[in-house]
Amino acid sequence: MISVQLRFLPLILLLIHSSFTLSLFSNSDVNPPYPKAISDLKEAIVRGLGFQTEEFKITGFDPRESQVGHSVQYEFDIEVDQKVIPFKLLEDVNRWEYVDLPIFQVEKPGQPAEENGLVEKRSKANEVPVLAPFQLAGPMELWIQDAKDMRLNLPHDVDAGVLKKVILADGAVVTVKGARSVSLRHPLDLPLPLNRSQNGFAAGLLTLAEQLRHASRAQDGPILSLRIVGPTSLTAAPSSSTSSSSRLKLKRLAPGLVELSSPSNTKAIESLSIDLHGEAPTLLTPTKFTAMWPLASLNGSNANLLGFEALLSSVLGPKADKRGSFKLLKADVSAHTFVKIGFQAEKKLKEGDEFSLEGFPAWRTKPETMRMHFEVLAKVEGDKIIPERVMPVTPVVVEDTVASNSLVGNVSMSRMPIVHPPPNPFTL
Length: 428
Description:
Number of helices: 6
Distance between the termini: 85 Å
Largest sheet: 13 strands, mixed
Helix content: 10-25%
Structural class: alpha+beta
Strand content: 25-35%
Radius of gyration: 32 Å
């Protein structure tokens, strides 16, 4: 008897090993583990929405269904009557793509990237988003960060070494390319009243910019200071008059510090012409030229700029039409990678839950669970995903099919009235 059992022992061990291997394979495919970035995003959303884990079941967050896009984010902090009011604006993403981000990618062991189709997607995922080219006009100072290989073109390439600071003299205009962000280094006091928009232009902001420009030209006034991260080139902006007037003079003041000045006596930036070689326009780049210092290429008739002026007027209230001032504490424009991903919250319905069944067919079975669908827009920063906006989504409604006897009250077809349609001469 014992010999019989020992004879079947290898077969039993083989079956146990096969079932264990099959279970591991099926579990790894059906319930793949969340990457750490997705797990942190899920926890942040659950905390932000106030969901209780014992009441709600959160599902979704599949990295394979996430969409990736690039956009520009604007952040402003304004101080009015000793109250700080933050603003955060986001431009619409022009194109969403299914791209495998490095924080989402999971390679199968022993399988090269060329075989699993990740090479092209990784090249797109590793692209660093940058701002569209824009123009800056002096007088101002630019503090450069993370730009070891930045080029100076005045209009020919100039080797000035690693630059940390660039001073733009009055009348000097440069085109900045490849910048990841632009921010204000010091707070600014802006005068009031704020004029309203006129003839489709942001008249109030244009007036503030002109007053700020005159203050920067004063000898004893503070010079405008900006921080630019990661620019690839500073190019002398072309002039509409002569080619020689677009040249800039370079003066080395110290290691890593240069001054750019224009040989022309013309100090007005209204004579500039925009030549950005067909780059995609944003709020920083115009479709119709309207000079607005210090962003010489800023479109004064841009719909986003008009909307921001209306928002600023509503925040200032009656103070916008009175003499005074307000302070701009922070101004930051940056390009980011955004992720759009959906998830679902499911809750068991209990007695007393506020759930309306209005419009629900009487013949259908009453639901026992409530499902809510959401879509989160999150910003990618390094190896983290920070949620920016959570929006409810209406799922695709499945059409109900009802039998004809239910619609007519379960009446026999023999009792239905006979209807003779009018004859059609084209019927054979």
